[in-house]
Write a structure and sequence with these properties.
The chain has 178 residues and is α+β, with helices and mostly antiparallel strands. The strands form four sheets. Strands 1-2 form a two-stranded antiparallel sheet. Strands 3-6 form a two-stranded parallel sheet. Strands 4-5 form a two-stranded antiparallel ribbon. The protein has two domains: 109 residues, no CATH class; 39 residues. The protein has seven helices and eight strands. It starts with a helix and ends with a helix. The longest helix has 21 residues.
């Protein structure tokens, strides 16, 4: 017979919450709540949803160097906080984007790509956040095309089960899709 108490001592966990626990999301939110305070101390705005954190600033050509220095200092401080808190920034899932009109983006000074812990974060033309695809000029064309494609795909898929549906149920499904 195995004595599990001695096995548990070998694998004692000092941080974390069992995945799937009822209080896990609440405890995780409390655990990462200092991120927004840390970023705001640099004058940086944050948006957090579950494990995703977005930091953003408004850039003006006249104050570009100062604002970028503050932004990079904030990234460094966040990286240090993550390391100290036994968390890791996933640079492969990190993205950056500059929003503006076509004219402003064309005339705006070149902005160097930010880096986190030695990993360069490329500046992209599109970014996906909370299921919405945003592009740097915000026309939402790519997002609209994606939604239309998904609606078309699922509507066509419904034709396979249509013979098994009542007219009322078919109308309800179509109404919920549109």
């Amino acid at each position: 017979m195995v004595d599990f108490s001695s096995v548990l001592l070998l694998y004692q966990c000092h941080t974390g919450v069992p995945q799937g626990s009822a209080v896990g999301p609440l405890l995780f939110s409390c655990y990462i709540s200092p991120i927004s305070s840390l970023a705001s101390s640099f004058g940086i705005n944050t948006q957090q949803c579950a494990g995703d954190t977005q930091i953003y600033i408004s850039l003006f050509a006249s104050h570009l160097a100062t604002e970028l220095t503050m932004f990079l200092s904030c990234l460094s401080a966040l990286h240090n906080w993550f390391c100290h808190s036994d968390l890791a920034l996933n640079s492969s899932k990190s993205e950056s984007i500059l929003f503006g009109t076509r004219q402003r983006l064309h005339c705006f000074p070149t902005v160097s790509q930010p880096s986190i812990a030695g990993s360069t974060i490329s500046i992209t033309e599109t970014i996906k956040t909370l299921g919405i695809t945003l592009d740097n000029q915000l026309p939402l064309k790519q997002h609209t095309q994606s939604v239309c494609h998904n609606i078309h795909f699922h509507t066509r898929a419904l034709r396979h089960i249509r013979p098994a549906l009542t007219d009322f149920l078919a109308a309800t499904i179509v109404a919920s899709v549109v």
